[in-house]
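Researcher: I'm preparing a figure for a lab meeting and need a structural model of a single chain. I don't have an experimental structure, so a prediction will have to do for now. The sequence is pasted below. Please return the structure as tokens so I can convert it later.
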Amino acid sequence: MRARDKAAVSALRATLAALDNAEAVPLDETELRGMALEQSPVGVGATEAARRELSERGVVDVVRAEVAERLEAAARLTAPAHADRAARLRAEAAVLLRFVDDPGIARETA
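Model: Understood. Here is the structure written out token by token.
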């Protein structure tokens, strides 16, 4: 990260977004539709839902899914014109694998 590695920054940003999405709790639309306007909650934070808290195993599963997604996409990019993109996807996967295989690295590079 200190070397401003674009592949690492891209991989980490996308993975943080994936983790954020994994913590989201789906809203039940039937509750929202059946509510009258005067019964709707008001005020700061009234519409915020509690977030799911991922276990360490859940976090690792999300990161491994991100790795698999990048490697699959790189494998599909077989044309010579896409060689740079495929290499970048493989580099991003390698960055993420470092964090999953050796979690101590995350503390050292931060």
